[in-house]
Amino acid sequence: MKKIALIAFGAFITLSAAAQSPVVKSQLKEVKTEKKELKEERAERNTKLAHGKTKAAKHDQKEIRGDRKELNSTKKELKTEGVKKPVSKATGKPSVNN
Question: Is the pLDDT of residue 85 over 90?
Answer without folding.
Answer: no
